[in-house]
Structures are given as structure tokens and as C-alpha cells.
Amino acid sequence: MCGIVGYIGNKEAYPILIKGLHRLEYRGYDSAGVALVNAEGNINVYKTKGKVDDLESFTKDKDISGTVGIAHTRWATHGEPNDVNAHPHYSQSKSLAIIHNGIIENYAIIKKDLIKRGFEFQSDTDTEVLVQLIEYIKTTNKVDLQRAVQLALTQVIGAYAIAVVEKGNTNQIVAARKASPLVIGVGDGEFFLASDATPIVEYTKKVIYLNDQEVAVITRNEEIHIKTISDVETTPVVKEIEMSLNELERGGFPHFMLKEIYEQPRRIAEAMRGRINVDRNRVSLAGIIDNKEKFINAKRIIIVACGTSWHAGLIGEYLIEEFCRIPVEVEYASEFRYRNPIIHKDDIVIAISQSGETADTLAAIELAKKSGAFVYGICNVVGSSIPRNTDSGTYTHVGPEIGVASTKAFTAQVTVLALMTLTIARLKKTIEDDLYKRLIHELAEIPEKMEKTLATNAKIKQIAPIFTYAKNFIYLGRGYNYPVALEGALKLKEISYIHAEGYPAAEMKHGPIALIDAEMPVVFIAPHKGIYEKTLSNIQEVKARKGRVFSIITQGDREVRKLSDFCISIPETEECFVPLLASIPLQLLAYHIAIAKECNVDQPRNLAKSVTVE
Ligand code: F6R
Predict the structure, then answer these.
(1) Taking a C-beta distance cutoff of 8 angstroms, is the pair 161, 182 a contact?
(2) By alpha-carbon position, which residue is closest to atom 3 of ligand 1?
(3) 206 - beta bridge partners?
(4) 309 lines ligand 1 (CB under 6 A)
(5) How many Å apart are CA 416 and CA 320, to the nearest integer?
(6) Which DSSP letter does residue 507 get?
(7) Which of 19, 367, 581, 592 could form an SS bridge with 570, CB 3.0 to 4.6 Å?
(8) Nearest protein Cα to ligand 1, atom 10
(9) DSSP 578-603
């Protein structure tokens, strides 16, 4: 998604802004730009389609001086990705420049009105409409920039994180947000601005998260002043961020995605630390214990999420229903928010999100809160909007996920769902003591088993190039491994651009079997658990139609191995924890196929890391 960086201080802004844009590249974008206020107070805007490197080439012979500046990576919404639609945008008189994340939904009406008043537009963007509106209000009402921004934003419907600089004002940036994140970094005599903390962390750990409808005036050598768009003063709260610069670097791996796949054993162990006791016979999650009456009495749990987080939610459904005996529904947040769902006061809504900023999930939370349900968040990014808008929750604590395709965040979400399940089941007394202890013990073993699973990397790397010919893939699994099939297929399509579909294995006969021929790779998640025999029959059906079978099996399994063209073994574990291991070879398979196809795995085309618009 679009990225914002800003700087004001005693250093040259340009190198800091460019470095910040590089740090935000993981979010996905198609053009980049920068606006600098030089010592004479002139605003220089430079922008170009393509990558931040292209912007750097473009600015080689330009005036890039100035200690105040704003910069942007754009992920096109209104208007195609080109130089003109890239941000920043000037206002008509070029006295203002703006960068914007989000969508102004009523931009067309405002634009029509401004055109009537003599404004001309260079781009197709909603953002240019906003900066023209600010300029119009500023000149007609004769107010300062902060007031003009406040008044303009009262007319706007939609989501925004914006930063504005002004000609002749070498000391100030005005920034505002609604439903799109914005963080101010507080340094020593300098301030930073960013859409997430990644560009800030190497300069300062002190940050202020702007709240919805707040407008901040960031002035050189002064305190930050914040007012709401309806002109109520608020007190900025400075928080410490936990992220370290080290966590943002690739650490010797060729791609962030591979680094994050390999981090899983350590990160999952960290996600469990302090939550499973040292004797490995007790789980306790503070968020659940503090609200135990709610969980004990819950009539239903509704899980809302998008994409990979939604797949984790499906595994949560299997876990919670099996061990806590509470009915669970798993909803796409984007559908839930618009379909007038029935939500009761004794429902618990669990929102799952890596970024904590997904627009649809946030809207689903708002809806659930309005209906009086208790809302619990499972989130990775500390201090992001979802944890701030839920009643309680659990962080996954796996560190920043930079690769666009989610890997470690997924296994961490499943881990947290498993910890929640065990905590609730114990409270509700729906689990036998022996089983409870056995599951905890096994969960605590998972990081070590993940390490063993990662040893399959070399074999997967060897097999992957064989599949670069494929135009389609089918992924099949049953029970806990049905969501794993969905997730495996999503990983492959995201980064290798090969069409892939996941199905519950038994559904194959109800349609997809028609697609199977000698060209079709079929991935089976077939551990020696649960309804193994049934999966075995499904594999036979595929082989009978000459499909090419790639299967994930339990170590020592002979039968599936015999039937498969390619086989990857994972360690034996409890059925409900198989997803934590089986998803790793699927992540690696997608990664190596994408690499063999020379795809950009960390920044796949058209994708954004954090989807802050609906
Ligand atoms: C896929 C992926 C996306 C996200 C989805 C939700 O690899 O990363 O499908 O899972 O956009 O994002 P979060 O979890 O940040 O709400």
C-alpha cells in the first residue's frame, strides 16, 4: 500500500526521505516522489513512475536541498500508475504540496465544484482534489495551513493519512489521519513522519501515533501540537517502539520472505514464551484470563479477517470448536461489514490481522463494537489500529514481517489461536487434563519440529524448477489441513503468478477433478492423521487421471509416498498442530517456484503489504 515519509530537522531531508522510501518498499507501490522545501522556501516536487531507484536517477541533476520534506510511494487507486498521478501533488498556485494514503470517496463532487471555481487539475487522483480544496479554503477563509486542513477534512468522506508542506514555510509540516495509519517520530531536534514505524526506527524509538481525525502541526524546535478536525486540542502521547533496525535487515538471506520462513522456529518459540509455563503443563493468556467470564459464557465466536489471516481463522474454528465446544463462524471482514450480520451481545468477535491496519477488518470491528459484542484482537504490529480499537487481545510478537507474502505471521496467528483454545478449554472444562497437558507439551515442541521441517528446503529447491511450466495448481487437504491447502495455494499465486486453488480434498469430486490431467500438479497435505485413508483414496483418484502429485507426508509414511511423484516429510505431531509444520514446505515451494520463474518474491506485482483501503 502507499507509503509516507516526512522529515524536519537540522539535516538534509532528501537522503533520509529516500532511505525511508526504501524501507517502505515492502508495502508494494508503483511510483515514488518527494517534495522538498529549500532554504528560500520554494517547494521542489520530483516524482516518477517505477521504483525509488528511478526517482533517485531522476533527481540526480536537480535541487534536492532542504531540511524539510515529504516523500511517498504510491499504489494506484484513482488513475493509472504514471508520473503525473504519482505523489506529491502541488496545489494550483504551487504554494502547497501534499502526499496522501487512502481514498477520498467524494472527490468527484468536490472536484466538480472546484473546477467551477476555476481550478485546473493535472492528474486523475483524489489526492490532487484534496490539496486544491485545502488551498481554496486557505485563501478564501484567510486561515493558516492547520486550520485549512481541518476545514477541508470536515468536507471529506473516506480514509486518509496526509502530510502537507507550504511554500515560504521552512519550519513546518502539517499531517492528519483518518483510518490510515500515521506515526510521528520524535528525535533530538528533529521529527520524522511515516505510515508505519519502519523508516523511523533507525533514528528514534519515541513515537506518537496519530488518532483518527487528528491534525498535527510539526514545527522545527517546538512541541508537537495536535487538534481534531473539529478544533479540539488533544495531548500527544509519546510511546516507545520495540522494533530494532536489525529486525528490518535481511540478515544474509537473499529475500525477506526466505528470512521470515527461516525465522519461524525462533519466532514461534518467542510467541509462546511466558504463555506456556516452564513445566509445559499450563497455558495462560492474560487477555483471556482477564476476560474469563466473557469467554466462559460466550454463545458464539465470530472470527473476522482477510487473506492469510482468514486462513488462520479457519484453523481457529477447527481448534475452538473441537476443544472449547463453542460454535465458531469465520467471516471475510469485507463481507461481514456490509451484509448486515446478526451479532449478539454475548458473541465474541475475534479480529485477526498481521498489520493491524487492514481497512475491512477495522470496519468489521467497528460494526461488532456497535452491536455490543466483545472484540478481541490477534495482531502482530504493536500499537497499530486494531489493537487500539479492540477490547482486549494477544500480540503474535514475531517481529516485523517485510515480505509481502505472509509466512511467519500466519504460523504465529495459528499458534496464538492454539494458546487461546487451550486457555479457554481449561476455563470451560471442556478438555480432559491429560489431553490438555499432552497438547501443551506438543505445542512447546513445535519450534524444534519446525527446525527439522526447514531441512526439507534443499529438496524443495531441487524440485521447484520442474513446476515452472505449470499454469495451474490444485492444493487439497482435509480437516485442519483444508485451510493449509488454501494458504498454500494463496502463497503460490501471490508470488509466482501461477493460478492455484485450494479445496477440501473430498470436494475434488464435485468439480475440480475435471481439470486433472498429466499437466496438473496436485499438492496433497496428507499427514498420517485423522481421515488419512480418505485422503489416500483422493490421491489414487488423481493418479488414475495422471495428475502429478506433490505430497506433504508424515515421516515414515510409505503409502502416500508410493503414490506420489514428489514427497516432503514432516515430523509427527498432534493432528491439530500439523498446519504449523505443513505450511512451511508449502511456503518454500511457492518461494522456490517463484525464484525459478525470476519473480520478485518480496514485492509481487499489484500486491500491498498492508491493505489500508477497502
Ligand atoms: C497474503 C497476505 C494477505 C494478508 C491480508 C490481511 O500473503 O499477506 O492476504 O493476509 O491482506 O492482512 P492483515 O493480516 O495485515 O490484516
Answers:
(1) yes
(2) 307
(3) 240
(4) yes
(5) 12
(6) G
(7) 581
(8) 308
(9) HHHHHHHHHHHHHHHHHHHTT--SSS
| Residue range(s) of every CATH 3.60.20.10 domain in the chain | 3-246
CA gap 250, 256 in Å, rounded: 6
Catalytic residue chosen out of the listed positions 2, 324, 567, 576: 2
Q: Is 587 close to ligand 1, i.e. is its CB under 6 Å away? A: no
- Cα separation values, 196 from 394, 416, 430, 515, 609, Å: 20, 24, 41, 43, 11
Ligand 1 centroid to residue 305 C-alpha, Å: 8
Whole-number Å distance between alpha carbons of 567 and 443: 25
The domain covering 254-453 belongs, at the CATH homologous superfamily level, to Glucose-6-phosphate isomerase like protein; domain 1 (3.40.50.10490)
Task: Yes or no: say if 168 and 94 are a contact pair by the CB < 8 Å rule.
Answer: no
Are the CB atoms for 283 and 416 separated by under 8 Å? no
> Grid cell 502537507 — which residue?
164
Arithmetic mean of pLDDT over the chain: 94
- In tens, the pLDDT along 23-63 reads 988 777 889 999 999 999 999 999 999 999 999 999 999 99
The predicted pLDDT at position 552 comes to 96
The predicted-structure confidence for 306-337, as pLDDT tens digits, reads as follows 999 999 999 999 999 999 999 999 999 999 99
Q: Which of 377, 333, 339 is nearest to 358 (CA)?
A: 333
For CATH 3.40.50.10490, list the domain ranges present in the chain: 254-453, 455-600
Residues 285-303 pLDDT 10s? 999 999 999 999 999 999 9
pLDDT on residue 79: 76
Q: Is the CB of 612 under 6 A from ligand 1?
A: no
409 pLDDT above the threshold of 80: yes
Q: Which CATH class is domain 455-600?
A: alpha beta
Total Cβ atoms within 10 A of residue 466: 15
Query: 355 CB less than 6 Å from ligand 1?
Result: yes
| pLDDT at 465 > cutoff 90 | yes
Backbone CA torsion sign across 495, 498, 499, 501: negative
DSSP state of 273: B
Please give the residue that has the higher pLDDT: either 279 or 327: 327
